[in-house]
Amino acid sequence: MSSETESTPEITVGHTYGTETSDPVIGDNATIRRGALIYDDVIIGDRFNTGHDVLIREFTEIGDDVLVGTKTVIDGRTDIGSNVSLQTGVYVPSHTTIEDNVFIGPHAVLTNDPFPVRKNVDLVGPTIEAGASIGANATILPGVTVGEGAFVAAGAVVTEDVPPETLAVGVPAQHQPLPPELQGDNDL
Fold this sequence. Notes:
The protein is mainly beta.
């Protein structure tokens, strides 16, 4: 795809949400599947792939070689690096940073509001550093940093920063040394 806005009954690339928006920019060799909705003011690199029914809101920047799985929501004002895999049903709130070579498993939920509907505060999403892996159904709370090469187990609820090369497991997540079988780079 090019930087031109494109819409069909099956996908919308270039959803206008205000009076002064810019068409999204999508790199070469993109595959955008049925039901996708990509807002204006989005920048996406080369070899981008989506599943079905994906939502990507305004002011999101996405690098090269990124997969956004079916029914994943990226709520905008978010930076996503290159070589990232967001599996089915992932929720990424605004003001989130996801660095390069990150895997986020099915139905993981990242959050950005420390006092949902109780206080009017600035939203602060989590930071997922390079090479981190987050398992299925994990929840990452606002402002938390998951360190470089860290591994968050499936179903974990991460309430505090996870140091680099550390395993976070349980509810609330406790930190453990990264076992040998989880050490090394993500193979995305």
